[in-house]
Task: inverse folding
């Protein structure tokens, strides 16, 4: 198996909370905190609320040190050995789970394999396996590709499994919330945002399906756009007040159902100044606008498309006017 430099070194984006790292490394939370306190290893990033976030590279380094400790080396010596080898450029990480299974599902593209494994882990309620899949996939794929080619289709598959009664509603909520937490983490831990007003992201009134909105939010933060994530079922009068207060760069709506789209098309009544001036620009998307194009004729604003990559490009096009390019 040929391993790229990215696979060896891991990703530096802070993505995993301490509970996830404990499950992935079999190192207790108490030990992780003690190592950071005594040896400044690893130096986890922090959320705005002070919670630790670890990167894929942090996890690979922790696994390397734990293996040395399990072999009988003192912790301080193992950490010093790690740092010495990193400094000399002689250290390359190969996650054991990948190294041991190089031919697994070799007939499928790599991300499809992770997609299938993640879905199976979630419907079996096996969060330890789900965490393992996340860790492995993020070694070989960027967070953007992972979100688009693993998380997004798995969210769809979970919903379809519930609709076809393969899983019950408790299992669907459990699986969806697991993915939701990871997407929110990406929104919290994205790169430093641009110094511009945020993009407001809101579901239509009475719209509770927020998966698409979460994905858009995580991808926008990956591209350094600040977001104001409002989430599910946002009443238009409250949203209008919020928009007037923060003066966003854009407003993005998501609606999946006909009844929620029927409420959403009334937005110009609550934002008359936006409807007249065209600023901030308004974009919208969701299943109902893709499957029933006639709804686009009733909706004021810019349709963002049925594809997430296209949607992100269209949002950026709305914000970056020709005069600013």
Result:
């Amino acid at each position: 198996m040929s391993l790229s430099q990215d696979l060896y070194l891991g990703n530096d984006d802070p993505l995993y909370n301490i509970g996830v790292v404990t499950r992935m490394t079999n190192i207790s939370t108490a030990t992780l905190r003690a190592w950071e306190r005594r040896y400044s290893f690893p130096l986890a990033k922090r959320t705005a609320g002070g919670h630790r976030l670890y990167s894929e590279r942090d996890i690979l380094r922790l696994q390397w040190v734990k293996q040395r400790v399990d072999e009988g080396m003192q912790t301080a010596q193992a950490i010093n050995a790690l740092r010495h080898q990193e400094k000399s450029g002689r250290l390359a990480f190969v996650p054991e789970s990948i190294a041991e299974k190089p031919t697994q599902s070799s007939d499928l593209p790599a991300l499809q394999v992770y997609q299938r494994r993640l879905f199976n882990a979630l419907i079996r309620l096996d969060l330890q396996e789900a965490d393992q899949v996340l860790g492995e996939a993020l070694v070989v794929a960027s967070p953007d590709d992972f979100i688009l080619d693993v998380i997004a289709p798995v969210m769809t598959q979970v919903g379809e499994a519930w609709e076809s009664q393969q899983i019950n509603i408790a299992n669907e909520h459990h699986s969806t919330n697991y993915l939701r937490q990871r997407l929110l983490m990406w929104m919290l831990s994205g790169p430093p945002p641009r110094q511009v007003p945020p993009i407001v992201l809101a579901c239509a009134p009475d719209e509770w399906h927020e998966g698409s909105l979460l994905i858009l939010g995580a991808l926008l933060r990956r591209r350094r756009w600040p977001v104001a994530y409002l989430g599910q079922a946002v009443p238009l009068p409250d949203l209008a007040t919020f928009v007037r207060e923060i003066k966003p760069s854009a407003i993005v709506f998501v609606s999946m159902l006909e009844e929620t789209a029927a409420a959403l098309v009334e937005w110009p009544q609550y934002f008359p100044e936006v409807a007249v001036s065209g600023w901030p620009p308004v974009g919208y998307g969701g299943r109902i606008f893709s499957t029933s194009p006639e709804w686009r004729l009733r909706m004021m604003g810019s349709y963002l498309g049925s594809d997430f990559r296209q949607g992100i490009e269209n949002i950026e096009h709305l914000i970056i006017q020709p005069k600013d390019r």
